[in-house]
Amino acid sequence: MFCGDGAQGAVDAVVCTNCKQEWTVLHSCDYKKTHKKEPHMNPLKRIHYNAPVILTFALVSLLALWLDHLTGGQSNRLLFSVYRAPMSDPLMYPRLFLHAVGHANMAHFLNNFMIILLVGPMLEEKYGGKWIIIMMVVTAFVTGILHIVFSGNAKLGASGIVFMMILLASFANIQRGRIPLTLILAVGIFIGREIVDAVTLDNNIAYMSHIVGGICGAAFGFIANKS
Asked: Are residues 52 and 30 in the same domain?
């Protein structure tokens, strides 16, 4: 008796003295012919620039911090912080946006981007890079304007954008006609704490920017989920 006629193994036909064992040999031959070992890939090529907007924002902010170090604080004063200035000052207008990429030191930078790099990629995937840019720009502009109106100090940092993303992330699983409990808790914990700290503490932290950023995130979340 013969088995394996027409099989593409080591031979065309084999006397079936031990059928199971012979078929195992034939199939292993086919496997070696049809399955080639994958070529070795450079580990660096496996790294994916998965959230272009968030990662670029982080790199630009890191570059601004490095530039501030090189200029002895002059770049932050001229470009990367927002404060009251004459309307005739041409740099006042870009500062309304660029203050979000400025940071006082590395600890300040890490505290903000530890959260942005954790929450931001998820939001960029959900809403798209274009809308995340719009949300970040609007948040920076609103917090910059309100800071000029209500404060006489200089402000810099991405904390307003951080709180915008925290509140926006709370809308990730919202359903029409229902308010998620996580959203209520996030508003109560983050916004409520900032209001209490703004009233009771006397330091250089821009609590108003945190509160306004959170309100912007909540507004964006409602608008995006409604549409």
From this structure: no
Cα R_g (the chain), whole angstroms: 29
pLDDT tens per residue, range 192-219: 777 777 677 666 567 788 889 989 998 9
The pair of three-digit structure tokens given for residue 83, joined into one six-digit string: 């404060």
Which tokens sit at 55?
């990662």
The boundaries of the domain holding residue 121 are 44-226
CA gap 163, 216 in Å, rounded: 9
Give the integer Cα–Cα distance in Å for 99 and 77.
10
Report the number of distinct structural domains present in the chain: 2
pTM attached to this predicted model:
0.75
Nearest CA to 218 among 177, 159, 176, 174? 174
The per-residue pLDDT for range 170-199, each reduced to its tens digit, is 877 666 667 777 777 877 777 777 777 767
